[in-house]
Amino acid sequence: MLWAVATIVFVGIRLVPGDPALAILGGPGSQASAEALAAVRAEYGLDQPVLVQYGAFLGRLVTGDFGESYVLRRPVADVIGAQIGATLALAAASLVVAWAIAIGLALVSTGRSRWARSIGGGIETVAAALPQFWLASILVIVFATGLGWLPAVADGTPAGVVLPVLTLAIPVAGFLAQIMRESMLDALAAPFSLAARSRGESETGLRLRHALRHAAVPGVELSAWAFGYLVSGAVVVETMFAMPGLGRTLLQAVTLRDVPLVTAVVLVVALAYLVVTFLADVAATLIDPRRRDAETGDRPAPTPRAEVAA
Amino acid sequence: MSLRVQDLAVSFGGVEAVAGVSFDLAAGQCVALVGESGSGKSVTARALLGLAGADARVSAAALELDGAPLPAAGAPAWRRIRGARIGLVLQDALGALDPLRPVGREIGDGLRLHARASGSERAGRVHDALLRAGIENPVLRARQRSGELSGGLRQRALIAAAIALDPPYLVADEPTTALDAGIGRQVLAELGRLKAAGTGILLISHDLDAVAGLADHVLVLAGGRVVESGPTTQLLAAPEAPETRALLAANPAGRPRGTRLSIEDRPPRHGRATREPPIEPARGVGGPPVLELRDVGVVHRTPDGPFSALDGASLELRRGETLGVVGASGSGKTTLARVAIGLDAPTSGQVRRFGKPGGSGPGALRAARGRIGLVGQDAGGGFDPRWSVERTLADALAAEPGGRRRTRTARRRAVAALLDAVGLSGSLAGRAPASLSGGQRQRVAIARALAAGPELLVLDEPVSALDLTVQARVLDLLDDLQRERGLGYLLISHDLDVVAHASDRIAVVEAGRIVEQGDAARVLAAPEHPATRRLLGARRPLGGAARAQTDPVS
Amino acid sequence: MTALRLPTARETRRRADLLSRLPLVLAAVFAVLLAVAAVAPGILAPGSPTAIDPAQAFAPPSTEHVFGTDESGRDVYTRIVHGAGPSLLIGVAATAIGLGLGTLLGLLAGLGGRVADYAVGRTVEVLFALPGLLLALLVIVLVGPGPVPATIAVGLSSAPGYARLVRGQVIGIRATGYVEAARVLGHGRTRILARTIVPNTARQLLVLATLGIGQAIVWASTLSFLGLGTEPPAPEWGAMLNAGRTYLQVAWWMTVFPGLAIVGTILAATVLGRALERRAGGLR
Asked: Which residue windows are transmembrane per the record (chain C) (predicted)?
């Protein structure tokens, strides 16, 4: 799987119009000499046949050697190692907050009065529609510039991470709440809910003991997707709030066309995504053992439909 | 002491779902509400537990439990009654037990809510309830989730959940419908034991025969009204309401081939409104076989290794003849049908259609184009949702040799003729399939299969999704069509009664093998294989004996 | 039971009419305004989106400049209206690329037999391991920044999602009773494909496309915001937000209003898409 990602990345790089050696030396504007280009080609093995390059590329990956950043002139592995912790922590914190908001929203709005349902549904839809970069700006305008409660940049204090986490968590909470509410509604309309009511179960008990459990399964499955969304969002949020992390590093690397660094970040994120998907699968199976028996091979994890383009 | 219902009416948004229901359910008695879907029986049952729904308006002259009126809709007092004083046994359609919770927890919920029993005490009482519902090994079962139990065990677990608190009254809503006949009989016997022990049971069913053995008093519902009520024996002996008679006549059990099951006035079919039912010689009967299977085997590759769906199946079918294939779900019936048509390829053996070797896949289907028709079980997915009835049938007509060259008027006329042949009004031509009733959809499916003038119809569970009286009408229609057109039928069903009624010959399938095959009368009278005997033995629900003396058509 | 449910549903619908129709009406009005702004922005905002008036720089919202002005005194309202065209164009083009490619792959996987299904399935799965924005960034680093690469990047990165959904649709439809019935009737592959499978899939694709355009606009504007797509002073919403970011502390209107335009567009697309979905009889 990771091998496939690596291959696609490699093929992608080879398909780039333009000379990688030129890119290393600063792009077409640098007017690099022919000797300099040749030297760079030799240094990075670009003068070898493509298959040899591919083999070397894979070989280095297996040993954890992602090469050296064109721009920073440091081993890529070091750069990533220094940054990844902050980003993972940010994503994890945001996921937890998103779950808390989503469960609250789903419990309050599901199957209650028509107004509660409409307002709850409206909040979810709007939350899910908020672009992260704009949400971040609005939060800064309101809570930092306007009210002055929280710092506008991540200054290293606990208060500094509140806005970044909220920025990431709110849209994800919208998606989570939507999908959880849908399954809660299904669960509340299912025959087993009628059976539970016929035993004297209260509406609140029904939600806590039955519906929430059913809503948790798609919620957990969606969390794997949400993790990818959060890491993507880290690019925006870390830039906006001037936080150290993989996202900001990636954006700089993209801007400077630092191919080895971008390649490595993409591979690392893909690896993390696979791990998270696996964990989500295990967690979902713990909640719903039927999944173990079902043919899970071809069944894709759910993605919010509005998010197909993401 | 009784559950007294006087003139109960339930309406939804001003539309009356059921009205005028009255009965008195005493301890140790059983009252049955019988009717088809939409008759209002389930709404009545739910109203007795205050669970008719938020939109429902329930009114009654009297609705009393042991002399005290039942609470108003939505009142918290209901929660003290549900489970503790009136229990509900729901139909197990794979969903009345929460699939994510252990069965024991589901059963223990009532104890937790009403008896405030401690954990260990609760476990003991859960096990006791499971035992009383006829489940062996209760400790294991309590730990399992519904997905790990068989249908019969699930239904018993639902009974256990309802009786955990020993409620004096039990409402059982179609407790046997989703079960094989044999297991359904055991479940009814379980309810019978509860009744003998003093529980008052309100039994809801669509099957008058099934309730006959248990119920002391029967109410027949149709269209939300009680059309007839009375003591069971009396009602069965002399049914008066046409709805009751139709229900009784519709049961195919014990009704020989050729007898009509539907007695009501259906839209008269063109030119044959006054046709007499006796058996006429069918056209084009006999002759060489239209379908032959020789030693056909189908092996599916699965992650757990090869799975033999069909093994050494041989059969023959001629025109004008019905071969009934019966077996439990998963026995290989449908695989047999698919191989016969050519939708699936046999792994071994040979399939011959119309005397020629037939393969499978598009080529084989094209070769037999127009000569074989398929009628499947209607699960709503049998028709392109975008197409009107007319377009569906026109598309099928195009499969007839030369069918595509029809002019528009000729096509329209052909569609009208097809609708007429299956007893549908031509005014349905413009309708979308979703707007048709189940019976109408199944008739359209038959019309589609007939469009290209086939000689052989494969009927895969053609009536299993239909109400009993609708089933009766469809079976009669198939019988008429066979006689008029000399069609050969390969009839696949899990329901031995349907197969016994409609077949000339019967093949019994078990675990992918045809274990017995022969003349219908012989197989039914003198079964040779244990599987056949099991099917036959399970066939009669408790009411069978009572019913045998009171055949309504005699 | 159906006989019972119908009146209930009708009753419910009547009562909920106003409440449930309101979003749809708002979305439709917004969509019409957007279309006008995209085709003929001059009707809604006669001024020039790039007209500079340094004397009026950073003017807060007033009757003269309803949404205020930016650092060069350009009218923010005029720029938003004139930005609708480029922003929508990027969104529509990206969706078209993604949907086109995704449909092609999905049909190939759904109809092409085992090998094609496996190959496409695995490729899509691999691409799915890369969150959308990351895939887009990868494309940008390979192709370079700019509005056209950004559009392609967003389109390409949305293709796997569409491919997966189309494949599911096709496989679902292929397994239905009516396709089986058509096969038994002896209809050929192409006839079944053209008459049954493709039309039924297309219905759902329309829904997907509507829902997808909103997201494509967000991702495209995100790239612009990060300085990798359209660049200021072109009146594109993401680019406007990128410019506004510098002046967040002094001129909130430069950020709030273009963002509202984006959010409004996604919401309108979502509401309209869901309405279409209900009419199409539900997406599986």
From this structure: 21-44, 88-111, 123-142, 148-166, 205-230, 250-276
Please give the interface size between B and C, counted as residue pairs whose CB atoms are below 8 Å apart.
91
The answer to whether residue B376 neighbours chain C at the CB level (below 8 Å) is yes
Tokens 């399992």 label which residue? B144
Mutate to test the interface with C, among B44, B395, B461, B470 (most CBs of C within 10 A): B395
Class of domain C25-54+73-282: mainly alpha
Q: Judge contact between C62 and C54, C-beta under 8 A.
A: no
**Interface membership of A210 toward B (CB under 8 Å):** yes
What domains can you pick out in chain B, each with its CATH number? Answer: 2-248 (3.40.50.300), 251-257+286-371+454-542 (3.40.50.300), 386-449 (no CATH)
Q: What pLDDT score does A150 carry?
A: 78
Q: Which chains touch C (3 or more CB pairs under 8 A)?
A: A, B
3-state secondary structure of B284: coil
CA distances from B295 to A108, B352, B354, B512 (A): 62, 12, 17, 12
Task: Characterize the bridge pairing of strands B68-69 and B62-65.
Answer: antiparallel
Share of chain B above pLDDT 90, in %: 16
Q: Is the peptide bond before C49 cis (omega within 30 degrees of 0)?
A: no
Average pLDDT on B26-54 reads: 88
Contact between residue A100 and residue A255 where contact means Cβ atoms under 8 Å apart: no
| Bridge partners of residue A120, in order along the sequence | none
Across the interface, of C11, C187, C199, the residue whose CB is closest to B399 is C187
pLDDT digits over B445-503, tens only? Answer: 999 998 888 889 999 988 887 888 888 888 999 999 998 888 999 999 988 889 999 99
Contact between B396 and C185 using a beta-carbon 8 Å cutoff = yes
User: Which of A15, A129, A309 is closest, CB to CB, to C219?
Assistant: A309
Task: Suggest the residue from A194, A199, A209 to mutate for an interface test with chain B (most B CBs closer than 10 A).
Answer: A199
Q: What is the pTM of this model?
A: 0.76
Strand pairing category for B217-222 and B30-34: parallel
| Mean pLDDT confidence for B281-299 | 77
C-alpha dihedral (B463, B467, B470, B475), degrees to nearest 10: 30
Residue tagged 């984006």 (tokens): C262
DSSP per residue, B144-177:
SBGGGS-HHHHHHHHHHHHHTT--SEEEEESTTT
CA atoms within 13 A on the CB side of B104: 19
Establish if B379 touches chain C: CB-CB under 8 angstroms.
yes
Return the C-alpha torsion angle C85, C86, C91, C96, nearest 10: 90
pLDDT digits (tens, 9 = 90+) for B396-433: 888 776 666 777 888 888 899 999 888 888 888 888 88
Q: Is B542 left (phi over 0), alpha (psi -120 to 50) or beta?
A: alpha
pLDDT at B277 (0 to 100): 45
A274 shares contact with chain C (CB less than 8 Å): yes
CA distance A211 to B260: 48
pLDDT at B216 over 90: yes
> What are the residue ranges spanned by the domains of chain C?
25-54+73-282
For residue A260 the two structure tokens come to 């080895």
Alpha-carbon gap: B259 to the closest alpha carbon of chain C (Å) = 30
CB nearest to C263's CB, from A13, A129, A251: A129
Q: Which two tokens stand for residue B237?
A: 């002996």
Q: Does the beta-carbon distance from B376 to C189 stay under 8 Å?
A: no
Contact A13, A263 (CB under 8 A): yes
Would you call B13 and C11 a contact, using CB atoms and an 8 Å cutoff?
A: yes
Q: Give the CA dihedral A184, A190, A193, A195, nearest 10 degrees.
A: -170
Which one of B365, B382, B392 has the shortest CB-CB distance to C183? Answer: B365
ipTM value of the model? 0.75
Question: Which residue from B524, B494, B531 is spatially nearest to B506, judged by alpha carbons?
Answer: B524
Specify whether the CB–CB gap between A23 and A70 falls below 8 A: yes
Our CA-based measurement puts residue B440 at a distance from the nearest CA of chain C, in whole angstroms, of 15
